[in-house]
Amino acid sequence: MKSKKNLVFIGMMGSGKSSIGSIVSKKLNIEFIDVDYEIETKLGMKITKIFEEKGEKYFRNIEEAITLKILKNKKKVISLGGGAFLNKKVNKEIIENHISFWLNWDFKTLLNRIKNSHKRPIAFKSTKNELIKIINNRSIVYSKAHYKIDCEGLSKNEVANNILNMYEAH
Ligand code: S3P
């Protein structure tokens, strides 16, 4: 694959953007960058603490700036935070200049994974019904990704192999 485009993983919290992204990066032997991890490193604070102490708006501004900066790289595997693709500037940049993969799961699977997650403020401050609404609303935006990857029933390794096949054919 000669493309210099970044491979960008998008999707809900708990969809495996970091773990599957990391498997894909190893299989392709290219560097992996996790945007949430970069934000935490830059601010020296866990995401939960950033939300608690500075608020969501502050987090979203930092998330936009760091995501756009990371996207200036060439040919990396990048996993975004679950809300980043909803940002208009991030969304436009990815659609125009990168290859994006939406990791799509049944909402029940996502709910089970995130409902008791203490490291995800959006998950622990929302009720089950609110989370279902968030999943449905975000799915409309996620569906703009270049590739929709249906993950249900597959192992992470199988999902990664499906992505590699799509990437090679891109
Ligand atoms: C968020 C998802 C999180 C993190 C933050 C907000 C969201 O990332 O960026 O808690 O709005 O969906 P993960 O999708 O990696 O959990």
Defining traits:
alpha/beta; five-stranded parallel β-sheet; single chain; 170 residues; Rossmann fold; binds shikimate-3-phosphate
Q: Which class in CATH terms?
A: Alpha Beta
Based on CA atoms alone, the radius of gyration comes out at 15 Å
Tell me roughly what share of residues is in helical segments: 55-70%
**Contiguous uncertain segments of 5+ residues:** none
How many E-type strands? 5
By CATH, the topology is Rossmann fold
Bound molecules: shikimate-3-phosphate
Mean pLDDT: 96
Report strand %. Answer: 5-15%
The end-to-end distance, rounded to whole angstroms, is: 8 Å
- Total helices: the number is 9
User: Any idea what the shape is?
Assistant: globular
Overall domain count: 1
CATH homologous superfamily - what is it?
P-loop containing nucleotide triphosphate hydrolases
Compact description:
With 170 residues, the chain is of the alpha/beta class. The chain has one domain (7-169): P-loop containing nucleotide triphosphate hydrolases (Rossmann fold, 3-Layer(aba) Sandwich). The chain has helices at 17-28, 35-43, 47-54, 56-70, 88-97, 107-114, 121-124, 128-142, 156-169; strands at 7-10, 32-34, 77-79, 99-104, 147-150.
Describe this structure in words.
The structure is a single chain. With 170 residues, the chain is α/β, with parallel strands linked by helices. The chain has one domain (7-169): P-loop containing nucleotide triphosphate hydrolases (Rossmann fold), CATH 3.40.50.300. Helix content is 56%, strand content 12%. It contains 9 helices and 5 strands. It has helices spanning 17-28, 35-43, 47-54, 56-70, 88-97, 107-114, 121-124, 128-142, 156-169, and strands at 7-10, 32-34, 77-79, 99-104, 147-150. The chain has a 5-stranded parallel β-sheet, with helices on both faces. Helix 2 crosses helix 4 (56-70). The structure holds shikimate-3-phosphate. Shikimate-3-phosphate (S3P) is lined by residues 13, 17, 36, 47, 81-83, 120-122. Residues 13, 17, 36, 47, 81-83, 120-122 line the site of shikimate-3-phosphate (S3P).
